[in-house]
Amino acid sequence: MALIKSVRGFTPKIGEDCYLADNATIIGDVVIGDQCSIWFNAVLRGDVNSIKIGDRVNIQDGTVIHTLYQKSTVEIENDVSVGHNVTIHGANIRSGALIGMGSTILDHAEVGEGAIVAAGALVLSNTVIEPNTLWGGVPAKFIKNIPPEQSMELNKRIAKGYIMYSEWFKSEEK
User: The pTM is what?
Assistant: First the structure.
Protein backbone atom coordinates (compact mmCIF):
# COMPACT_ATOMS: atom_id res chain seq x y z
CA MET A 1 0.00 0.00 0.00
CA ALA A 2 1.30 3.45 -0.90
CA LEU A 3 2.59 5.73 1.86
CA ILE A 4 0.03 8.50 2.24
CA LYS A 5 1.10 10.95 4.93
CA SER A 6 -0.45 14.09 6.41
CA VAL A 7 1.78 17.04 7.27
CA ARG A 8 1.04 20.56 8.57
CA GLY A 9 -2.69 19.74 8.67
CA PHE A 10 -2.83 18.70 5.01
CA THR A 11 -3.89 15.19 4.02
CA PRO A 12 -3.60 14.04 0.39
CA LYS A 13 -6.86 13.71 -1.53
CA ILE A 14 -7.02 10.88 -4.05
CA GLY A 15 -9.66 10.78 -6.81
CA GLU A 16 -11.77 7.86 -7.98
CA ASP A 17 -10.37 4.79 -9.75
CA CYS A 18 -6.68 5.64 -9.18
CA TYR A 19 -3.79 3.22 -8.92
CA LEU A 20 -1.08 3.95 -6.34
CA ALA A 21 1.92 1.61 -6.43
CA ASP A 22 2.87 -0.07 -3.17
CA ASN A 23 5.90 2.13 -2.60
CA ALA A 24 4.62 5.41 -4.02
CA THR A 25 4.82 8.25 -1.48
CA ILE A 26 2.20 11.01 -1.36
CA ILE A 27 2.64 13.65 1.33
CA GLY A 28 0.69 16.70 2.46
CA ASP A 29 -1.14 19.18 0.23
CA VAL A 30 -1.64 16.91 -2.78
CA VAL A 31 -4.87 16.59 -4.77
CA ILE A 32 -5.02 13.83 -7.39
CA GLY A 33 -7.89 13.61 -9.91
CA ASP A 34 -9.69 10.53 -11.24
CA GLN A 35 -8.16 7.59 -13.15
CA CYS A 36 -4.59 8.60 -12.28
CA SER A 37 -1.68 6.25 -11.70
CA ILE A 38 1.26 6.94 -9.42
CA TRP A 39 3.94 4.33 -10.08
CA PHE A 40 6.74 2.66 -8.13
CA ASN A 41 9.09 4.90 -6.12
CA ALA A 42 7.30 8.08 -7.21
CA VAL A 43 7.28 10.83 -4.57
CA LEU A 44 4.70 13.63 -4.53
CA ARG A 45 5.86 15.84 -1.69
CA GLY A 46 3.30 18.53 -0.88
CA ASP A 47 4.86 19.42 2.45
CA VAL A 48 5.87 23.01 1.65
CA ASN A 49 3.26 23.96 -0.97
CA SER A 50 0.46 22.45 -3.05
CA ILE A 51 0.51 19.85 -5.81
CA LYS A 52 -2.63 19.55 -7.94
CA ILE A 53 -3.00 16.77 -10.49
CA GLY A 54 -5.89 16.49 -12.98
CA ASP A 55 -7.63 13.42 -14.38
CA ARG A 56 -5.98 10.53 -16.29
CA VAL A 57 -2.44 11.60 -15.36
CA ASN A 58 0.30 9.01 -15.02
CA ILE A 59 3.33 9.74 -12.84
CA GLN A 60 5.83 7.03 -13.75
CA ASP A 61 8.45 5.20 -11.70
CA GLY A 62 11.01 7.22 -9.75
CA THR A 63 9.50 10.64 -10.44
CA VAL A 64 9.80 13.34 -7.77
CA ILE A 65 7.36 16.25 -7.59
CA HIS A 66 8.05 19.06 -5.11
CA THR A 67 7.67 22.84 -4.66
CA LEU A 68 9.27 25.90 -3.05
CA TYR A 69 7.93 27.04 0.33
CA GLN A 70 5.57 30.00 -0.20
CA LYS A 71 6.94 30.55 -3.72
CA SER A 72 5.90 27.86 -6.18
CA THR A 73 3.24 25.20 -6.61
CA VAL A 74 2.78 22.35 -9.07
CA GLU A 75 -0.25 22.03 -11.31
CA ILE A 76 -0.50 19.14 -13.74
CA GLU A 77 -3.66 19.23 -15.86
CA ASN A 78 -5.57 16.35 -17.51
CA ASP A 79 -4.17 13.57 -19.74
CA VAL A 80 -0.51 14.20 -18.95
CA SER A 81 2.19 11.53 -19.00
CA VAL A 82 5.23 12.09 -16.80
CA GLY A 83 8.02 9.66 -17.72
CA HIS A 84 10.30 7.63 -15.48
CA ASN A 85 12.72 9.47 -13.18
CA VAL A 86 11.42 12.97 -13.90
CA THR A 87 11.81 15.87 -11.46
CA ILE A 88 9.09 18.52 -11.50
CA HIS A 89 9.78 21.35 -9.08
CA GLY A 90 7.19 24.11 -8.81
CA ALA A 91 6.10 24.04 -12.48
CA ASN A 92 2.82 23.93 -14.41
CA ILE A 93 2.13 21.24 -16.97
CA ARG A 94 -0.89 21.81 -19.22
CA SER A 95 -3.32 19.20 -20.58
CA GLY A 96 -2.07 16.58 -22.98
CA ALA A 97 1.62 17.28 -22.42
CA LEU A 98 4.27 14.55 -22.41
CA ILE A 99 7.28 14.87 -20.11
CA GLY A 100 10.09 12.57 -21.28
CA MET A 101 12.08 10.20 -19.08
CA GLY A 102 14.79 11.69 -16.91
CA SER A 103 13.86 15.29 -17.61
CA THR A 104 13.81 18.11 -15.05
CA ILE A 105 11.27 20.95 -15.02
CA LEU A 106 12.18 23.79 -12.63
CA ASP A 107 10.22 26.43 -10.70
CA HIS A 108 7.73 28.66 -12.49
CA ALA A 109 8.28 26.90 -15.83
CA GLU A 110 5.17 26.24 -17.89
CA VAL A 111 4.76 23.38 -20.35
CA GLY A 112 1.95 24.17 -22.80
CA GLU A 113 -0.95 22.03 -23.88
CA GLY A 114 0.12 19.12 -26.08
CA ALA A 115 3.81 20.00 -25.75
CA ILE A 116 6.54 17.38 -25.53
CA VAL A 117 9.64 17.71 -23.36
CA ALA A 118 12.27 15.29 -24.68
CA ALA A 119 13.94 12.68 -22.48
CA GLY A 120 16.79 14.10 -20.40
CA ALA A 121 15.84 17.73 -21.01
CA LEU A 122 16.47 20.45 -18.42
CA VAL A 123 13.71 23.07 -18.49
CA LEU A 124 15.05 26.07 -16.58
CA SER A 125 13.02 28.22 -14.18
CA ASN A 126 10.55 30.63 -15.80
CA THR A 127 10.75 28.93 -19.21
CA VAL A 128 7.50 29.00 -21.17
CA ILE A 129 7.07 26.10 -23.57
CA GLU A 130 4.39 26.93 -26.11
CA PRO A 131 1.56 24.48 -26.86
CA ASN A 132 2.24 21.74 -29.42
CA THR A 133 6.00 22.20 -29.50
CA LEU A 134 8.93 19.86 -28.91
CA TRP A 135 11.72 21.00 -26.58
CA GLY A 136 14.91 19.17 -25.66
CA GLY A 137 18.49 19.54 -24.50
CA VAL A 138 20.39 20.93 -21.53
CA PRO A 139 19.19 23.57 -21.12
CA ALA A 140 16.01 22.78 -23.06
CA LYS A 141 15.48 24.72 -26.28
CA PHE A 142 12.73 24.82 -28.89
CA ILE A 143 13.20 22.09 -31.50
CA LYS A 144 10.07 22.22 -33.64
CA ASN A 145 6.34 22.75 -33.81
CA ILE A 146 4.16 19.65 -33.75
CA PRO A 147 0.77 19.53 -35.49
CA PRO A 148 -1.80 19.61 -32.63
CA GLU A 149 -3.56 16.46 -33.82
CA GLN A 150 -0.22 14.58 -33.90
CA SER A 151 0.86 15.61 -30.39
CA MET A 152 -2.57 14.94 -28.90
CA GLU A 153 -2.81 11.52 -30.59
CA LEU A 154 0.61 10.48 -29.25
CA ASN A 155 0.13 11.90 -25.78
CA LYS A 156 -3.41 10.56 -25.32
CA ARG A 157 -2.35 7.12 -26.56
CA ILE A 158 0.36 6.97 -23.88
CA ALA A 159 -2.02 8.24 -21.20
CA LYS A 160 -4.65 5.65 -22.17
CA GLY A 161 -1.98 2.95 -22.12
CA TYR A 162 -1.17 3.79 -18.52
CA ILE A 163 -4.85 3.53 -17.58
CA MET A 164 -4.77 0.01 -19.04
CA TYR A 165 -1.54 -0.89 -17.21
CA SER A 166 -2.97 0.33 -13.91
CA GLU A 167 -6.00 -1.94 -14.43
CA TRP A 168 -3.66 -4.95 -14.53
CA PHE A 169 -2.31 -4.05 -11.09
CA LYS A 170 -5.68 -3.14 -9.60
CA SER A 171 -7.14 -6.50 -10.71
CA GLU A 172 -4.25 -8.36 -9.02
CA GLU A 173 -5.01 -6.59 -5.72
CA LYS A 174 -8.59 -7.90 -5.56
Answer: 0.95
